[in-house]
Amino acid sequence: MADLKEETSVENTNPVEETVEQKKKPIDPTLEGIQLFYEKNKKLVNYVGGGLVVLIAVLVYFKLYYLPEQENEAANEMFWAESYFEKDSFALALRGGVMVMTADGQKPMLGFEQVADQYGMTKTGNLANYYAGVCYLRIGKFEQAIECLGKYDGKDEMIAPIAIGAIGDCHMELKRTDEALKYYLKASEKSHNGFTTPYFLKKAAFANEVKSNYTEALELYERIGKEFPKSSEAREIDREIARVKTLSGQ
Known about the structure:
- The structure is a single chain.
- The protein is mostly helical and 250 residues long.
- The protein has 2 domains: 32-139, no CATH class; 154-250, Serine Threonine Protein Phosphatase 5, Tetratricopeptide repeat (Alpha Horseshoe), CATH 1.25.40.
- It has helices spanning 33-40, 42-86, 90-95, 112-118, 123-138, 142-151, 159-173, 177-190, 196-210, 214-227, 237-248; strands at 96-102, 105-110.
- The chain is extended and about 75 Å long.
- It starts with 32 loop residues before the first helix and ends with a helix.
């Protein structure tokens, strides 16, 4: 008996997986300018745009929240150093360390140096550099004073020229008359007013006298008398002019 073989066709029900490369959507040929650029660089534009949003958010937080908080902290910390500065306790004002009573309890006060270091991004921290420089000048540490005063970057009509002139005082104490003269003249030009301008013009005139530059000194003294007749430096300016004329043989 012959075996009957049934041919059975079996269909594979599992679909064959195929990797299909998705075609990019064609760019509308009518686009131009910014729209065309965006269509060609969508990923890059979205990436950069997202980064800019984050950067702007960080800058807004820094300017509107973080920096004002730091400013308030710096002002509170420097209050005590300023109080010692006003009492001519320059070493304490500079370095701090004294225990003081604050709203948060007793704590060691910060000196101008520490305020400048910890809050350097704030206006108060910047001002602390000026105070630290003056403290160093008053205790005879002239090189350190020059360094601190050089870090001060302000536009105040009075403090800015005084900071520059104080650097001149340091150089004068160190017998660097040429450097002192340069800073005195720079201080006199920083802010044109009836207080700091004649004050530093007179210091510049004296520096010229030290260098035996009597003609230049005379010009500065005469300028004080002509431009700032109501200043305190002008009260005895005629005597200074007469003296320098005698020295110069005029």
